Amino acid sequence: xxxxxxxxxxxxxxxxxxxxxxxxxxxxxxxxxxxxxxxxxxxxxxxxxxxxxxxxxxxxxxxxxxxxxxxxxxxxxxxxxxxxxxxxxxxxxxxxxxxxxxxxxxxxxxxxxxxxxxxxxxxxxxxxxxxxxxxxxxxxxxxxxxxxxxxxxxxxxxxxxxxxxxxxxxxxxxxxxxxxxx
Length: 182
Fold this sequence. Notes:
Blueprint: E1 10-12, H1 21-32, E2 37-41, H2 52-58, E3 63-70, E4 76-82, H3 89-96, E5 101-103, H4 106-113, E6 133-138, E7 146-149, E8 156-161, H5 162-172, E9 177-180
Parallel strand pairs: 4-6, 6-9
Antiparallel strand pairs: 1-2, 2-8, 3-4, 3-5, 7-8
């Protein structure tokens, strides 16, 4: 691999250097649950296209995570789906019985999940202590043995066993999963 991603290194476990508290809180949670994970540190990833090189290093497909809400901003959803799959608002809106879903404003993302655009992650649900965000997972995203996501910062990517996400991490964050077909 050449270009900006040629010096990326696959690592196991938490970083040894100093990181922002919200990222370190993710590693603290995973370690406290005995969840094994691999990590790649990289430049900020703003798009799924940027993540393709990371996919190859982690030998997974980074999941697309979308923070959505209804028109009134009274219902919030975090949707995890395969990174290569196209998102169709109409299909999800119909599945949820919501007349119209859209991307939630960045201010609500920060308020509810302590996340910023580009770093949306299922792991941000650890910050939703009031349970205001419903977690949705496309059935296809749950099929592989591993999922890929950011540790609440888009300068690292993690490889976590799907079973650990569903059986350990989500329960520890007091969130359930609702599977959807998109």
